[in-house]
Design a protein that fits this description.
GO terms for molecular function: actin filament binding. The protein is an all-alpha fold. About 55% of the residues lie in helices and about 0% in strands. The protein has 4 domains: about 120 residues, Orthogonal Bundle (Actin-binding Protein, T-fimbrin, domain 1), CATH 1.10.418.10; about 140 residues, Actin-binding Protein, T-fimbrin, domain 1, CATH 1.10.418.10; about 110 residues, Actin-binding Protein, T-fimbrin, domain 1; about 100 residues, Orthogonal Bundle (Actin-binding Protein, T-fimbrin, domain 1), CATH 1.10.418.10. The termini are close together.
Length: about 500
């Protein structure tokens, strides 16, 4: 289980977050039979926190924002929760699955969500905030939204768009539609620029589908009244027509001068929701210009790993994001704090000299790699700078191995240990490598997991296809607290490097 505990930073707008997340959960889980015992949640009471303690709602929300992150068969449902250990397992499952799908909830421990700690309420809100925000952020990429290419500036290319943070993309998205509407006002801050309702008045009308637009109040009508309360009511009415009313209330407009930063998060979540649902004229101008390749499973797993440790900015295209050296630098600091001290990196880039500055930063990364126990003989700064797929994936994989094993990764030792565990489990199979198809065919990962957890994975759920079985036993590993970043597809195709990483999590890691 995770150690430590959640400590809130700064002033948290508890009532606003609680009401927003209750509305979101009610909208998305009311029809779920497994959540009947908790629904509906009263936004003005503490019922949300009572629902958190069983862990079922946590698991459901993770699955809503990160589809298939949790196999439902691994969840202890409300009708089957008889012991405190069942609640602990559910909360651990939600936390570990969120982490392994790219959500940085590192500071939150299981005990923080059990109701026994001082900051239980704020830890619960922090969990929902991170899962919902990062769940929307993860979709802000060129693979799911090829129309994003419309947002590039004159001097930029596709790589530049991929390297923008989600906040920058959302800012450009809003300003693109404001400009298209002939509005001179621009968005520069989610904390300050949305509370007067002007941006929402034009944005919502501009991005609304033609079938919905007649039901919206036009911008002139929204802004006709100088009373901010009436403007806010009009904006919320338009948000309701677009299905985006969950996160904001009138108070977020009329009292925006208090708890400004946390109210800004609610505005950010709202705009992220709108971006993922309504491209508006971006689709008209840019959707077909650039075919978007599908993100590979390896890239997705690497991106989840990088985001789970809270690098800045949030990575949406992990291979492209390595080109300036800053994510790699942050990763080295996480692997070994202080390791980059004294290494001279460039943090602000000149438009003319930036390629040379990227190369200089990656030269520093190569030097750091040489001083670390990585096996990357073909690594060079130039290949990192041009986002070479093979070398970037290799670097990220080495970092993941180091992260999970605390620099102890040894594949020969891992194979020996795995065979020893199989022997103890009474399975007469000896693996010669992690590409052995018996691993998936015979559910050997589940066998080793059961050997370590006194049989947490039920054999009744291991009689399906490879992919379904893998989904289940990965979730059981998460339930036990093992950070398995390997995807079910890796087991289905017997990808040796990623299958080995999964066993390494069992051998060396339990968070």
């Amino acid at each position: 289980m995770a150690c430590g505990g959640y400590i809130p930073s700064g002033d948290v707008y508890e009532a606003g977050f609680r009401q927003a997340f209750c509305r979101y959960i009610n909208k998305n889980l009311t029809g779920d039979p497994d959540c009947r015992a908790y629904m509906p949640l009263d936004p003005y009471s503490d019922k949300l926190y009572d629902a958190v303690k069983d862990g079922v709602v946590l698991c459901k929300i993770v699955n809503k924002l990160f589809p298939d992150a949790i196999d439902e068969r691994a969840v202890n449902k409300s009708t089957n929760i008889f012991y405190a250990s069942h609640r602990v397992e559910n909360i651990q499952l939600a936390l570990t699955a969120a982490r392994c799908n790219g959500c940085a909830v590192r500071s939150i421990a299981v005990d923080d969500l059990m109701g026994s700690r001082t900051h239980f309420k704020l830890a619960s809100l922090e969990f929902f905030k991170q899962v919902i925000l990062k769940g929307y952020f993860r979709k802000i990429n060129i693979h799911e939204h090829p129309e994003m290419f419309t947002l590039k500036l004159a001097h930029e290319d596709l790589h530049d768009i991929r390297c923008l943070s989600p906040q920058d993309i959302l800012t450009r998205y809003v300003n693109f539609h404001l400009k298209s509407a002939g509005v001179t006002k621009t968005l520069t801050s989610f904390d300050y620029d949305l509370s007067d309702c002007v941006v929402y008045a034009y944005l919502l009308y501009k991005i609304a589908p033609v079938t919905v637009r007649p039901r919206l109040l036009p911008p002139d009508q929204v802004l006709l009244d100088n009373q901010l309360l009436n403007r806010a009511k009009a904006v919320l009415q338009n948000l309701r027509e677009l299905g985006a009313e969950m996160f904001l209330c009138e108070d977020d407009f009329i009292n925006s001068f208090t708890n400004r930063e946390t109210r800004g998060v609610l505005h950010l979540i709202t705009v992220a929701f709108l971006f993922n649902r309504f491209a508006g004229e971006m689709k008209t101008y840019g959707a077909g210009d650039r075919p978007a390749s599908k993100e590979s499973i390896n890239e997705l797993s690497s991106r989840n790993f990088v985001n789970s440790v809270d690098v800045r900015p949030f990575s949406t295209h992990v291979i492209s994001n390595l080109r300036d050296g800053h994510i790699a630098r942050q990763m080295f600091e996480i692997l070994r704090p202080g390791f980059t001290t004294g290494v001279k990196f460039t943090y602000e880039f000149d438009l003319v000299r930036r390629e040379a500055q990227f190369l200089q930063n990656n030269t520093c990364i190569v030097r750091l790699v040489q001083g670390y126990p990585f096996k990357l003989p073909s690594l060079d700064a130039e290949r990192l700078t041009r986002s070479d797929l093979a070398i970037c994936e290799a670097l990220l994989l080495e970092m993941l191995r180091s992260f999970l094993t605390r620099d102890a990764y040894d594949e020969y030792e891992l194979l020996r240990w795995t065979n020893e565990q199989l022997s103890r489990a009474g399975i007469p199979i000896e693996l010669r490598s992690f590409s052995d198809r018996a691993i998936a065919d015979e559910n050997l990962f589940a066998a080793v997991l059961n050997n370590l957890t006194n049989g947490m994975a039920s054999k009744d759920f291991l009689r399906g296809k490879r992919l379904d079985n893998a989904r289940y036993y990965i979730s059981v590993a998460h339930k036990a607290g093992y950070r398995v970043y390997t995807r079910p597809e890796h087991f289905e195709t017997c990808s040796p490097r990623w299958v080995a990483i999964a066993f390494a999590a069992l051998r060396w890691d339990k968070n």
